[in-house]
Design a protein that fits this description.
Blueprint: H1 2-7, H2 10-32, H3 63-99, H4 101-115, H5 119-130, H6 134-161, H7 164-171, H8 176-212, H9 224-230, H10 243-272
């Protein structure tokens, strides 16, 4: 792992530092901060002071405490949803590339049909019908992102499946598990790792967008998108309350994207050197 970090360019190292600091803040900060995300500790839209570093929100809760808690919630849900998308999309994509034929055609058309709907609109329809519980959010986000993961995995796995060593394994009569874990997956892993970062950022933005629209994480629990909605009125008074959670989300997205860009450059240089 340390060798991979050393091979990254300067931008990716900066991104790694940003992400590490963000994760430390959101996972350690709530346990050392004196206030919780739900405590009403001051007047609405109070200014930044030595006690409340970022001021208070629309009902008098500490903004820093809510950003830390909301950032933690965003990271956890985005990570779980992205992991779920890969658990769905990667095996199906590899299976479609290896098996081909009718199975590949059916899977590709099913994914195309699902991707024909705008993601956010489809999410709003589904959540309005089944409710806004955490399991429902995770399931919906995993399925939505799995379509992109499936198409990418299918494309790169098809190239690997055409290699001579895969054909030799096919002639030996190896089963699908062998193709998945021994032949295909190790060769597509660098591409999937970079895609994981991109899907993670997409999931973080999606959950914040849903919370802003009222169908994500429900009050009183904090969420970065929900905080923007709750404090939107403050912007007319020159207050920073709705801007701060948006900056926190942007910081996370920038850090992850810098890492992804570095991994892409590293993979490209390794491929060029072969």
């Amino acid at each position: 792992m340390m060798e991979v970090v050393r091979d990254l360019d300067r931008g990716a190292k900066v991104g790694t530092a940003i992400v590490i600091l963000f994760l430390l803040a959101v996972f350690v900060g709530p346990y050392v901060h004196p206030y919780s995300e739900t405590d009403i500790v001051g007047a609405p839209f109070g200014p930044a002071t030595s006690e409340f570093w970022l001021g208070t929100d629309n009902v008098g809760r500490d903004i820093l405490a809510r950003i830390l808690a909301g950032g933690r919630m965003t990271v956890i849900i985005a990570f779980l949803a992205t992991t779920g998308a890969f658990l769905i999309g990667v095996p199906l994509g590899i299976a479609a590339a290896v098996i081909g034929g009718r199975f590949d055609l059916i899977m590709a058309r099913a994914v195309d049909a699902l991707m024909a709907f705008p993601g956010l609109i489809l999410a709003l329809i589904v959540l309005s019908a089944i409710g806004t519980s955490i399991p429902a959010l995770l399931a919906m986000m995993s399925v939505l992102s799995s379509t992109i993961v499936f198409r990418l995995t299918r494309a790169v796995a098809a190239d690997v499946a055409a290699m001579d060593y895969v054909e030799v394994a096919r002639l030996r009569g190896e089963n699908m598990r062998w193709f998945l874990f021994r032949e295909i997956l190790p060769n597509v892993m660098p591409t999937l790792l970079t895609e994981f970062g991109l899907r993670f950022v997409y999931a973080a933005i999606l959950i914040s967008s849903l919370s802003f629209l009222g169908l994500g994480i429900q009050p009183p629990y904090a969420d970065l998108g929900g905080m923007v909605k709750e404090n939107a009125l403050a912007i007319t008074f020159g207050k920073w309350a709705p801007v701060l959670p948006a900056l926190a989300l942007s910081t996370l997205a920038i850090g992850v994207n810098l890492i992804v860009d570095g991994l892409l450059k590293r993979n490209a240089s390794l491929d060029a050197g072969r």
